[in-house]
Design a protein that fits this description.
- This protein has 97 residues and is an alpha+beta fold.
- The chain has 3 helices and 5 strands; from the N terminus they run H-H-H-E-E-E-E-E.
- It has a 3-stranded mixed beta sheet, with helices on one face. It has a two-stranded antiparallel ribbon with strand order 3-4.
- The longest helix has 16 residues.
- The two termini are 18 Å apart.
- The mean pLDDT is 92.
Length: 97
Amino acid sequence: MGEANLLNLSSYLVVEGMRRGLHPKDAIMETCKRIATTSIRDPKRRRADGKTTFVVSFYAVNKDGKYAGGSMYPGGKMAVHDGDSARIVACDPLFEK
């Protein structure tokens, strides 16, 4: 849902949140909440329960190496490498299905 990302300056919001000292997960969740709030004004992007009809996902790492992935709903995954091995980890969802 590129339009939602562009309209909310989403990548900027994630980076700005980390610049303000937020953990990457908190910066991502703050951004997802903003997207959810602004996007549901359009009935085409709003479910009957008021949640978004689409999914966006973000992945972030700060200068200290702390990382997180987040998405609107469960099911998002990301790859992480700790210097020794790679693994797939679940992204934190803003909403439950």
